[in-house]
Structures are given as C-alpha cells and as structure tokens.
Amino acid sequence: MYELIVQTHFDAAHYLRDYPGDCARVHGHTWQVEVTLVGRQLDDLGMLIDFKEVKKAVKAICDQLDHRMINEHDYFQQRNPTAENLSFYFYHELAGWLKEHHPHVRVGTVRIWESPRASICYRADDDISA
Ligand SMILES: Nc1nc2c(c(=O)[nH]1)N=C([C@H](O)[C@H](O)COP(=O)(O)OP(=O)(O)OP(=O)(O)O)CN2
Ligand SMILES: [Zn+2]
C-alpha cells in the first residue's frame, strides 16, 4: 500500500455560530491542510498519482475558501466552519475527484490545522480498525 501526502494552506476568515466565547466573533486563521491518498496500483511512470495533479486538485478546493469568509460558502452556510467540518468537506470533494479521475486511489485522511497546536484529522469510519 502506498501513502501519498501533500500539504498546503489557505488564509480565510470565519466565525462559529452559537459558540459561547470569542470564536463567535469574526476572526482569521491560516489553515494548514494535509491530505493523504492511498492505493496499491502504480501507473507506468511508477507513480500512485503525480504530486502535481494532487496539489492542483487540493488547491482548487482551497481557492474556493482562500481570502474569503468561509461562513458565506454554500457548504458552510448551514454548517459551522470548524476544522471538523472543513476536513469532512475536503475529504468528500477529493473523494469525488478521485472517483472520476483516479478510481484506483482513495482518500486516506484529511488533517486540518487551525493553528500549529490544534488540528483535526478526518478518515472514513470503515478505515477505523478498532
Ligand atoms: N474541536 C474544535 N474546537 C474548536 C474549533 C474547531 O474548529 N474545532 N475552532 C475554534 C475556533 O476557530 C478558534 O478560533 C480556535 O481556537 P483555539 O485553538 O483556541 O485558537 P487560539 O488561536 O485562540 O489558540 P490559543 O492557543 O489560545 O492561542 C475553537 N475550538
Ligand atoms: Zn477560528
């Protein structure tokens, strides 16, 4: 099994609806994003997927959020823009892209850092072996 990892970041504003504290006020983060893709099958070049392609796909998702108010994004109008919801959103956007373009590869995890000291990692339930 191969595990491919790419990291990137985006800067954006958000606020947490109904949060009992200062995070209910508009503020910003540099969100770090780490995506892990997994698969067994390599292409003729000996690659799981070209890093360049993965970076482009992750960037396309980040670009929808970068330098914006995340709460105004369609997906986050009804959901709080927490690291949990962001990791779920990235996971499923990438899963859709892989299904269409690279069906032999799946998303392993998406980790989102709100700060260097706090992150959330999402993986699909059936990957949990406990
Ligand atoms: N489980 C989660 N908890 C919190 C989230 C979240 O997405 N998931 N988000 C927030 C707020 O966005 C808040 O801005 C971040 O809080 P915190 O990590 O405390 O950030 P600080 O920069 O204030 O951290 P300090 O260590 O106090 O500087 C809150 N909780
Ligand atoms: Zn915040």
UniProtKB/TrEMBL annotation:
<protein>
    <recommendedName>
        <fullName>6-carboxy-5,6,7,8-tetrahydropterin synthase</fullName>
        <ecNumber>4.-.-.-</ecNumber>
    </recommendedName>
</protein>
<feature type="binding site">
    <location>
        <position position="27"/>
    </location>
    <ligand>
        <name>Zn(2+)</name>
    </ligand>
</feature>
<dbReference type="GO" id="GO:0046872">
    <property type="term" value="F:metal ion binding"/>
</dbReference>
<keyword id="KW-0671">Queuosine biosynthesis</keyword>
<dbReference type="GO" id="GO:0070497">
    <property type="term" value="F:6-carboxytetrahydropterin synthase activity"/>
</dbReference>
<keyword id="KW-0479">Metal-binding</keyword>
<keyword id="KW-0862">Zinc</keyword>
<comment type="similarity">
    <text>Belongs to the PTPS family. QueD subfamily.</text>
</comment>
<feature type="active site" description="Proton acceptor">
    <location>
        <position position="23"/>
    </location>
</feature>
<dbReference type="InterPro" id="IPR038418">
    <property type="entry name" value="6-PTP_synth/QueD_sf"/>
</dbReference>
<dbReference type="InterPro" id="IPR007115">
    <property type="entry name" value="6-PTP_synth/QueD"/>
</dbReference>
<dbReference type="GO" id="GO:0008616">
    <property type="term" value="P:tRNA queuosine(34) biosynthetic process"/>
</dbReference>
<feature type="active site" description="Charge relay system">
    <location>
        <position position="67"/>
    </location>
</feature>
<keyword id="KW-0456">Lyase</keyword>
<comment type="pathway">
    <text>Purine metabolism; 7-cyano-7-deazaguanine biosynthesis.</text>
</comment>
<dbReference type="Pfam" id="PF01242">
    <property type="entry name" value="PTPS"/>
</dbReference>
<feature type="binding site">
    <location>
        <position position="29"/>
    </location>
    <ligand>
        <name>Zn(2+)</name>
    </ligand>
</feature>
<feature type="active site" description="Charge relay system">
    <location>
        <position position="114"/>
    </location>
</feature>
<feature type="binding site">
    <location>
        <position position="14"/>
    </location>
    <ligand>
        <name>Zn(2+)</name>
    </ligand>
</feature>
